């Protein structure tokens, strides 16, 4: 197999270019799923797919595909390279976009080299990977893998009251039924690590062998509004205080657990949200994660028990709504080994690791052999405008992807 290399400048300039699409007046990058900003990012990607003469398809949940087939492999299952281009709020420029644009770069490099492969190569930009506006996250790839019906997904109501299906129609990305590439031959996702491990150990390539379980819930606590000045402490049914005690419970339990369990309350709202009114209601999200399926269940049960005790002790009512629940996933051992081999052939050290973040790969692993390649995140920072990966690491990761795809699509 000839040792090709990607066009580094083409990849890096597209990452920077897409990273400017969807910035607000304060320069913050936010391309929430099916928003105007997401449309602009999608349009930019589709233009690059068109410029590369790829076959373009958009399915009913708005997943975008670019496919390179030739006469020799047109009827074979595609080798799929994917990720996402939607972002969180005030995001960095690499999360998701790096994997999609590297996939495009790999295809163009192979096309330009006239490489003949046994399988078509396709890239996917999956809809709503982040799940910030519409839960659950990884929604587009979950629908593609058959884990959620497209009708149910399209009917999802967002945090802003919008309906996903209507928004996809509004931005022009509600694809036709039957636009389906079918089960991929295999799936690989290249992604920035978003954590501290590779940088701390000075290793340029992560061969991701598994991904932790994810539990998202929305918790509502009902107290009683009352006067902030006249109500003695013993008489209060303060939903704000109750929410704070849950947050403290989750943080302390995860911190003191000596396990990889992580717990996050990322959204919270108090009603009536007035400086001199004891909150009558608190609504907040709980994100629990653990690589061990049993421990994740234990964490969910511990939260449920705490809420029950709290309600009794403080004379309040609590309720929970499940927003997302995904079991831990183990990736394809053969592909993980090929990632290590591809890194070694390029003189790059690699490390087997677990993904702390959710990714589209965990959904596609339900229908095809799948694995992920990580590259280091500076300071382990992500979901933050300071997210950064060195150009050399970005290029190295894309070249390992290039070699791996040639190997996987060879037969
Ligand atoms: O939540 C996650 O881990 C991913 O960024 N959607
Ligand atoms: Mn991502
Ligand atoms: Mn993300």
Structure description:
This protein has 411 residues and is an alpha+beta fold. The chain has two domains: 8-212 and 328-409, Aminopeptidase (3-Layer(aba) Sandwich), CATH 3.40.630; 213-326, Alpha-Beta Plaits (2-Layer Sandwich), CATH 3.30.70. The protein is 34% helix and 21% strand. The strands form three sheets. Strands 1, 2, 3, 4, 5, 6, 14, 15 and 16 form a nine-stranded mixed β-sheet that branches. Strands 7, 9, 10, 12 and 13 form a five-stranded antiparallel β-sheet that branches. A hairpin with a 5-residue loop joins strand 1 and strand 2. Helix 1 (8-18) packs antiparallel against helix 3. The two termini are 13 Å apart. The mean pLDDT is 97. The structure holds (2S)-amino(hydroxy)ethanoic acid and manganese (II) ion (2 copies). Residues 88, 95, 130, 383 line the site of one manganese (II) ion (MN). (2S)-amino(hydroxy)ethanoic acid binds at residues 129-131, 137, 357-358.
Q: What's the topology here?
A:
Layout: H1 8-18, H2 36-51, E1 55-58, E2 64-68, E3 79-83, H3 97-112, E4 121-125, H4 139-144, H5 150-154, H6 164-170, E5 186-192, H7 197-201, E6 205-211, E7 213-222, E8 226-227, H8 239-255, E9 262-264, E10 268-271, E11 277-278, E12 281-290, H9 293-314, E13 317-326, E14 329-330, H10 333-345, E15 350-355, H11 361-364, E16 370-375, H12 391-408
Parallel strand pairs: 3-4, 3-5, 5-16, 6-15
Antiparallel strand pairs: 1-2, 2-4, 6-14, 6-16, 7-12, 7-13, 8-11, 9-12, 10-12
Helix pairs in contact: 1-3, 3-12, 8-9, 10-12
The structure holds (2S)-amino(hydroxy)ethanoic acid (HGY) and manganese (II) ion (2 copies).
